[in-house]
C-alpha cells in the first residue's frame, strides 16, 4: 500500500465521529460507526475502515442509508431471533443484533441471530470479536445483496457478491482464533489499489468480460466489466453459495438475482446469519489445552525465520500492535476522499482543515 499518511488513531476517531455528527447521526451512532471503522484499520483491513466514509455519505445522499434507525425484532423464537436492519447503519444494526444474540446464548447455551436489510456491516471479524469478548464461539454467514462482482465456478460473468465467512474461537488469556475473509480470491478493494498503481493482480483472481483469466485489475473498474473468481476454485464457490443462502435467504432477506440488483454502487446492503455457541455447554474440559497444543504444533513446522507461522487472527493482532504504536497508514487518495466527504456532510471547511491537520500529527 502507498503509505502517504500515518494518522493518529484517536484523533482520526474524533474526526470520523464529527463527520457523522454533521451528517445527522446521534452521538451513540457516530461512536459505534467510528469505533467499527477505526477497529478495521487497526486490524489491517483498510478496505473496510475509514475509507468507507465517502461511500456512506453518498449512500445517505442517495436516500439508501438511513440515519438514527435501529434493528427491530421480526420474530423471536427464544434461541432463534430474526431482525430487520431497517436500512440503518450496519454498525448499529449488527451491534444490536449481536448483543441480543449474546444475551440469548447466555440464556439458552446457543443462539442463532439473523439480520436482514442492514446497510453495510463492514468487517465481519468485529462482530465475531464481540462474541469472543463475551466468551462465545460464533459462526457468521454473510451475503451482499444485489451487487454481483464474483463469478460462479465455471461461469463467465459476475453473479454474486464477495460474501464473507467468519468463525471465532475464544482462548483463555490470549486473543481469539479468527477466520474472517471474503469468499472471492481477493477483495474488490485490492483490485482498486492495483488499478490505481497500474499493477497486475496475482494469477487466478480475475476473469475478463469474455470469461478469460486475466491479471488486469481494470476489468473491475472499466467497461466492459469482468469478474472476480472465488478462492479455492469449486470449494470457495460452494462456500460463497452457502453464505448467500444462509445469509440472504435464511435471514428473511434477499439473495442476489435479477429482482434484487442494486441501482447504486454506494448502497451496500448485507444480510448475516450468526450462530453463537457457549463453549461451556460442551463436554470438553481440555478444549483450551487441546487448542494451545495444536497452535504450538503447527507453529513448529519448519519455516523461514523472517516469516513465522501464524494462526488465524494473529495477522490482525500484529497489525493492531503496530498501528496503535505507529499510527494508521492511509493512501493520499483515500484521505482526500474522507476530508472532502466531511465538507459534503456539512462540516465547515475551517473545522475540516483543523481536524485534518490534527490527524496528521502522529506523535503517539
Ligand atoms: N461486509 C461485507 O460485505 C464484506 C464483504 C467482503 C469482505 N468483508 C470483510 O473484508 C475483510 C477482508 O477480507 P479479505 O478476504 O481481504 O481477508 P484476507 O484475505 O486478508 O484474510 C483474512 C483472514 O486470513 C487470516 N490470515 C491472514 N494471514 C494469515 C496467515 N499467515 N496465517 C493464517 N491466517 C492468516 C486472518 O487472520 C483472517 O482470518 C474481512 O474482515 C471481511 O469480513 C466484508
Automatic annotation (TrEMBL):
<protein>
    <submittedName>
        <fullName>Oxidoreductase YbiC</fullName>
    </submittedName>
</protein>
<keyword id="KW-0560">Oxidoreductase</keyword>
<dbReference type="InterPro" id="IPR036111">
    <property type="entry name" value="Mal/L-sulfo/L-lacto_DH-like_sf"/>
</dbReference>
<dbReference type="InterPro" id="IPR003767">
    <property type="entry name" value="Malate/L-lactate_DH-like"/>
</dbReference>
<comment type="similarity">
    <text>Belongs to the LDH2/MDH2 oxidoreductase family.</text>
</comment>
<dbReference type="InterPro" id="IPR043143">
    <property type="entry name" value="Mal/L-sulf/L-lact_DH-like_NADP"/>
</dbReference>
<dbReference type="Pfam" id="PF02615">
    <property type="entry name" value="Ldh_2"/>
</dbReference>
<dbReference type="InterPro" id="IPR043144">
    <property type="entry name" value="Mal/L-sulf/L-lact_DH-like_ah"/>
</dbReference>
